């Protein structure tokens, strides 16, 4: 392979399609712009890599024939200094790269759909959008701006219908599939979507700190909504027809009143397959269309109670946490959990030290638990 070919390959490997500044030789001022600046997008920025990798560093060094140069370091590479002759040899080669198109693999990233949680809006996910744009340039990311703020208290089946109408055209335009990132209450909305949509094409369903087995805890949200109630007596409200008009009551799961939960829950007991209904078989089949289920949560969440609910664990009648494999919905495979685990399609990513409102802005969490699954 020629030296020029190796240099081109190294540039492509580094995905260097943004701003590159070259100082001019001694005696001239300014700098030479060889690439257009990054393009601003509504949902974030594409950024230059912070440093050049060893492959590009070594290839350019060989191409430039390292030698002393009084005009300063070029390309920002420590120890790499080009003589005027080396610069003139390098310049025509780099100019040939100006019309180059992005590396072919960029177009293969599947679209990402983000569904927010209780009292949230699309603005809360600005950091997540930035991370995706930096690591997977060109990815089409849609944060659905539905049921924001207090509207997120609307009954969950109403929200499922609204989000279904929003995601259907996105899926239709992505025959290769899409990824879902669904935060907190949004994780339950997304699980219901996977159940009721018989034509969904979700590759990775990333459940980000979501109470998948329900919620049973005295949180600030709960105290704001029901200031005179505590978790021990909230069942009296939530397991009434009036209470089921609030989203949080749709997944309120009181382990001390299991019969009331099974009879009154109009949402969680249904998507869990804990109560018989005519769509149970079809919903299970639809849910199993998902390529991968990624479960994320942690012990320092501070809102999801118990925090293991993010992994389909939950309290028994003595408030001892039973893990997913001990839950009846798993043992009976009522909506497909056991089948998913058997085929290796469940990924569990617990992480300590992250509070509930920081899951979508924590860079380490993104790189560890989310980015690997955004193919």
UniProtKB/TrEMBL annotation:
Q: Which UniProt keywords apply?
A: Disulfide bond, Glycoprotein, Hydrolase, Lysosome, Signal
What is a single Pfam family found in this protein's UniProt entry?
Palm_thioest
Q: Does the keyword Zinc apply?
A: no
Q: Which GO terms describe its molecular function?
A: palmitoyl hydrolase activity; thiolester hydrolase activity
Reactions catalysed according to its record:
S-hexadecanoyl-N-acetylcysteamine + H2O = N-acetylcysteamine + hexadecanoate + H(+)
Which InterPro entries would you find in this protein's record? AB_hydrolase_fold (IPR029058), Palm_thioest (IPR002472)
Where does the UniProt annotation locate this protein? Lysosome
One GO cellular component assignment for this chain's record is:
lysosome
Q: What is its EC number?
A: 3.1.2.2
What is the main EC category here? hydrolase
The signal peptide here is none
- Family membership: Belongs to the palmitoyl-protein thioesterase family.
For this protein, the record's PANTHER family field holds: LYSOSOMAL THIOESTERASE PPT2, PALMITOYL-PROTEIN THIOESTERASE/DOLICHYLDIPHOSPHATASE 1
Q: What does this protein do?
A: Catalyzes the cleavage of thioester bonds from S-palmitoyl-CoA or S-palmitoyl-N-acetylcysteamine (unbranched structures) but does not have activity against palmitoylcysteine or palmitoylated proteins, branched structures or bulky head groups. Conversely, hydrolyzes both long and short chain fatty acyl-CoA substrate.
Instruction: State the name under which the record lists this protein.
Output: Lysosomal thioesterase PPT2
Q: Which gene encodes it?
A: PPT2
